[in-house]
């Protein structure tokens, strides 16, 4: 039996310090986004917000097509997130709790694919995208990321740790189909782990820069990271403009964390306690 004592003051002090150090870069970006570019060159540190936030936001939207970039990134990240959660959950449940020939071999192939550097597949994948006529279209970013080896591995481990094989066998004996067994037995058990996968996948798709830069047209189908790089280009670096765009670009991620944070904490607590 695990005994749990009350945390001391030093534990709270360490936790507060870690939280503060994690949030400070985000706060500093917000502070810079409220100042003009001349104030950033001052010797005194910038710790308090200024009064140029709305001016900087207006400059962001007049410099680049930020609304279009936000919309494209939301479409890509949301589609990739939903697809990865659904397909990885199906695959993880199949590898963990269904018996079929070649199960272990297929799973090893999935794990092996995760060990191949992504850079090796850039040229072949670009040729495939071009052959399908997807260059400059969001399909070029969405389709290659519909499912990942990490997602399959993560959900397979979740199914093995959260789903009892006896429940699956009992549902099969009662005549339930595989889809019904998955929906009524697996989904309630793996919901916290699926939430973690959703957040990780959304964040990865939202922050992806290299592949959208390769296969998308920055003028017609930009994403947030691509337009942020455009804000950073020029004869001189306008830090106020650049960090205002970065602050706006991180807002959807914060909103997603607020919406899914409870399941995330529940998943971490379940993993730590083994409950």
UniProtKB/TrEMBL annotation:
<keyword id="KW-0472">Membrane</keyword>
<feature type="transmembrane region" description="Helical">
    <location>
        <begin position="134"/>
        <end position="155"/>
    </location>
</feature>
<dbReference type="GO" id="GO:0055085">
    <property type="term" value="P:transmembrane transport"/>
</dbReference>
<keyword id="KW-1133">Transmembrane helix</keyword>
<dbReference type="InterPro" id="IPR035906">
    <property type="entry name" value="MetI-like_sf"/>
</dbReference>
<dbReference type="GO" id="GO:0005886">
    <property type="term" value="C:plasma membrane"/>
</dbReference>
<protein>
    <submittedName>
        <fullName>Cellobiose transport system permease protein</fullName>
    </submittedName>
</protein>
<comment type="similarity">
    <text>Belongs to the binding-protein-dependent transport system permease family.</text>
</comment>
<keyword id="KW-0812">Transmembrane</keyword>
<feature type="transmembrane region" description="Helical">
    <location>
        <begin position="66"/>
        <end position="93"/>
    </location>
</feature>
<dbReference type="InterPro" id="IPR000515">
    <property type="entry name" value="MetI-like"/>
</dbReference>
<feature type="transmembrane region" description="Helical">
    <location>
        <begin position="105"/>
        <end position="128"/>
    </location>
</feature>
<keyword id="KW-0813">Transport</keyword>
<feature type="domain" description="ABC transmembrane type-1">
    <location>
        <begin position="70"/>
        <end position="260"/>
    </location>
</feature>
<keyword id="KW-1003">Cell membrane</keyword>
<feature type="transmembrane region" description="Helical">
    <location>
        <begin position="185"/>
        <end position="206"/>
    </location>
</feature>
<feature type="transmembrane region" description="Helical">
    <location>
        <begin position="239"/>
        <end position="260"/>
    </location>
</feature>
<dbReference type="Pfam" id="PF00528">
    <property type="entry name" value="BPD_transp_1"/>
</dbReference>
<feature type="transmembrane region" description="Helical">
    <location>
        <begin position="7"/>
        <end position="28"/>
    </location>
</feature>
């Amino acid at each position: 039996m695990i005994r749990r004592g009350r945390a001391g003051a030093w534990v709270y002090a360490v936790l507060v310090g870690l939280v503060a150090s994690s949030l400070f870069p985000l706060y500093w970006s917000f502070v810079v986004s409220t100042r003009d570019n001349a104030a950033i060159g001052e010797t005194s540190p910038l710790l308090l917000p200024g009064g140029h936030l709305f001016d900087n936001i207006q400059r962001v939207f007049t410099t680049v097509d930020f609304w279009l970039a936000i919309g494209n990134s939301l479409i890509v990240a949301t589609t990739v997130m939903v697809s990865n959660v659904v397909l990885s959950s199906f695959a993880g449940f199949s590898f963990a709790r269904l018996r079929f020939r070649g199960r272990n071999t297929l799973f090893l192939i999935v794990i092996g694919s995760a060990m191949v550097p992504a850079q090796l597949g850039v040229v072949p994948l670009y040729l495939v995208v071009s052959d399908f006529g997807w260059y400059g279209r969001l399909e070029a970013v969405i389709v290659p990321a519909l499912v990942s080896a990490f997602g399959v591995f993560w959900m397979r481990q979740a199914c093995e740790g959260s789903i009892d094989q006896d429940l699956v066998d009992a549902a099969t004996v009662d005549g339930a189909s595989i889809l019904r067994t998955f929906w009524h037995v697996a989904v309630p058990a793996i919901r916290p782990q699926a939430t973690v996968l959703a957040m990780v996948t959304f964040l990865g798709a939202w922050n992806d820069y290299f592949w959208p830069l390769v296969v998308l047209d920055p003028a017609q189908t930009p994403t947030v990271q691509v337009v942020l790089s455009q804000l950073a280009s020029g004869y001189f670096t306008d830090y106020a403009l650049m960090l205002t765009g970065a602050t706006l670009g991180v807002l959807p991620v914060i909103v997603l964390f607020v919406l899914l944070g409870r399941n995330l904490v529940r998943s971490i607590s379940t993993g730590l306690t083994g409950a």
